[in-house]
Amino acid sequence: xxxxxxxxxxxxxxxxxxxxxxxxxxxxxxxxxxxxxxxxxxxxxxxxxxxxxxxxxxxxxxxxxxxxxxxxxxxxxxxxxxxxxxxxxxxxxxxxxxxxxxxxxxxxxxxxxxxxxxxxxxxxxx
Length: 126
Fold this sequence. Notes:
- This protein is of the alpha+beta class.
- The chain has helices at residues 18-32, 69-85, 107-123, and strands at residues 3-10, 37-43, 55-66, 91-95, 98-102.
- Helix content is 39%, strand content 29%.
């Protein structure tokens, strides 16, 4: 089975702090583990004196998914459930060089989103 790594991040709200963003990132990562292997994304080290200290970026995860329609449907379902629980946020998916922003799509837009994500995954197979 071909697998593709999909990067997923969400927009922070004005009153979010590091703790809230960390909790939301963990929430999203936990949900995505039902679909595939999830990794938190490391933030590049900006301090040249920091020795081997890697910091995790808040609000950004990756998930390894298959191109089977069931995987794509599950990925979109998880993202939409996250948006329903966390009002006012947008989720950004990056599959290869294709980026999508999701913000409360209608039923028809959800079907189109699934098709778009599946096509993007097919184009960037490992």
